[in-house]
Automatic annotation (TrEMBL):
PANTHER family: 2-OXOGLUTARATE AND IRON-DEPENDENT OXYGENASE DOMAIN-CONTAINING PROTEIN 2 (PTHR24014). Keywords: Dioxygenase, Iron, Metal-binding, Oxidoreductase, Vitamin C. This is 2-oxoglutarate and iron dependent oxygenase domain containing 2. GO terms for molecular function: dioxygenase activity; iron ion binding; L-ascorbic acid binding; oxidoreductase activity, acting on paired donors, with incorporation or reduction of molecular oxygen. The gene is OGFOD2. Residues 157-251 form the Fe2OG dioxygenase domain. Pfam families: OGFOD2-like. Its cofactor is L-ascorbate. It comes from the Eukaryota. InterPro entries: Oxoglu/Fe-dep_dioxygenase_dom, Pro_4_hyd_alph. The lineage of its organism: Eukaryota, Metazoa, Chordata, Craniata, Vertebrata.
Length: 296
């Protein structure tokens, strides 16, 4: 028992250290990084594709329903994967230029997750509050409320957002995995690339004896919405560079009951920021928490 407690304490300390390092990087970046396109840090309607705004208008109208929404999106098989327009071409270009500017700077950089070696954590860059949170709350939630009500689509109350980059001399592909998210939005920002399709298999909690895979092309400026638990990966690109904005959206109401990574009741410990999205963040006296098992 004592050994288990020591292990838990060591893990808590390791997590605290990682959070502390990330907060330090964020502080240095906010003080020292010289932005190239400061306008891309604050979400504006003009960044969003007209088709996306139309979808949001529909989803926030009084009679909105799933059947009506499906007229605006492209659906892939019965896997509950949907393609929809998200950004304008101009925004994607300016955003990539900003990310390249950051990449070329001597600022400290964290890795997006345990699998992607190249990319940018948008929280550290300072985009969470002014861009990703309003995008999730005002625009994405009305859509996910209709598409994924069973996964807390109406109350996705936190996120982890990052950009991943693939190029010939860096990462080429991404192996099969599921996300630490209830719902994921994956938007292709460009640039030009060939191959590099996404593939999707079974839903993690619903495996079939012979898993069926589908390939989905990622189209520039458009996004794919899928369940975080849908097994997926990215095939190797053959040329060019592929940049994607990934938003792992989380519902504390769902994951407080069952951790999506280990399928058990989470063992919560205090954390800073959004933690891993387990506890509603706006209640003042409830500390943020992470589940000890979950993968960073
Ligand atoms: O490269 C992609 O489009 C997939 C990225 C992804 O699945 C992830 O980062 O979780
Ligand atoms: Fe993923």
């Amino acid at each position: 028992m004592a050994a288990v407690l020591r292990e838990i304490e060591a893990e808590v300390q390791r997590r605290k250290h990682l959070v502390h390092q990330s907060a330090e990087r964020k502080a240095i970046i906010s003080q020292c990084y010289k932005r190239k396109h400061s306008e891309v840090y604050t979400l504006q309607d003009s960044f969003l594709a007209p088709g996306f705004l139309e979808i949001v208008r529909y989803c926030t109208s009084p009679d909105a329903n799933l059947h009506g929404l499906l007229r605006y999106t492209e659906s892939f098989s019965d896997k509950r994967i949907f393609r929809l327009p998200v950004f304008t071409e101009e925004f994607c270009q300016a955003f990539i230029e900003e990310l390249e500017n950051f990449e070329q700077s001597d600022m400290p950089k964290g890795r997006p997750n345990s699998m992607n070696n190249y990319g940018v954590l948008l929280n550290e860059l300072g985009m969470d509050e002014s861009f990703i949170t309003p995008l999730r709350e005002k625009y994405l939630r009305p859509i996910t409320a209709l598409l994924y009500p069973d996964l807390g689509g109406a109350c996705l109350d936190s996120h982890k957002a990052f950009v991943v980059k693939y190029s010939l001399h860096e990462d080429l592909d991404l192996s099969s995995h599921y996300d630490n998210a209830e719902v994921t939005l994956n938007v292709s920002l460009g640039k030009d690339f060939t191959e590099g399709n996404l593939y999707f298999g079974d839903f993690r909690q619903d495996p079939s004896p012979v898993p069926s895979y589908i390939e989905v092309e990622h189209v520039g400026t458009q996004g794919l919405l899928h369940r975080g638990g849908q097994i997926h990966g990215a095939l190797p690109i053959a040329s060019g560079e592929r940049w994607n904005l990934i938003i792992w959206m989380r519902s504390s109401a769902i994951r407080n009951q069952l951790c999506p990574m280990c399928n058990q009741k989470p063992q919560l410990v205090e954390a800073e920021g959004f933690g891993d999205g387990f506890t509603e963040t706006c209640e003042e006296d409830v500390p943020e928490t992470v589940d000890l098992c979950s993968v960073w």
